[in-house]
Amino acid sequence: MATQVTATANAQRNSSFLQIAIALQTLTIFLQAVSAGLLLTSSYGETLHSVGARVMYGASMLYVLAAVLAWKPGGGSPRPVWHASGFLVLASVQVVLGIAHIPSVHLPLGVLMFGLSVLALARR
């Protein structure tokens, strides 16, 4: 009985961690949109966007970690792990496109990522 209660508490804690990770990722993607606007209008915008890209990428990695922790101990569906891994792939493509200065794909992909992240957050 105590083991079952502990397992339930761990599953809830890992699910909360997953929700926080998705929220953090969504926030960082939104802040990237804000810093992209500043990139066009201020001298410090490029620095903010560059730092924000690193933070957003870290948030995507945290999302993968949270998804694995929520899935593995409880033996639930691996679907969140696939979603999180997909976001990490999109974030990687986004970074490469940003470094290569290809805004015609970089910007729409950022919008897509924000929309998918909001959707993932709403589903939790």
Overview in brief:
This protein has 124 residues and is an all-alpha fold. 88% of the residues lie in helices and 0% in strands. The mean pLDDT is 90.
Describe the structure.
This protein has 124 residues and is mainly alpha-helical. It has 4 helices and no strands. The two termini are 28 Å apart.
Give the SSE order as H and E letters.
HHHH
The protein's oligomeric status is: single chain
DSSP helix count?
4
Total number of beta strands: 0
Overall residue-averaged pLDDT value: 90
Strand portion: under 5%
What structural category characterises the helix and strand content? Answer: mainly alpha
First-residue to last-residue Cα separation: 28 Å
Give the C-alpha Rg. Answer: 17 Å
**Biggest pleated-sheet summary:** none
Q: What low-confidence regions span 5 or more consecutive residues with pLDDT below 50?
A: none
Shape annotation: elongated
Keywords:
about 120 residues; elongated; 4 helices; mainly alpha
Structural topology:
Blueprint: H1 2-41, H2 45-71, H3 79-99, H4 103-123
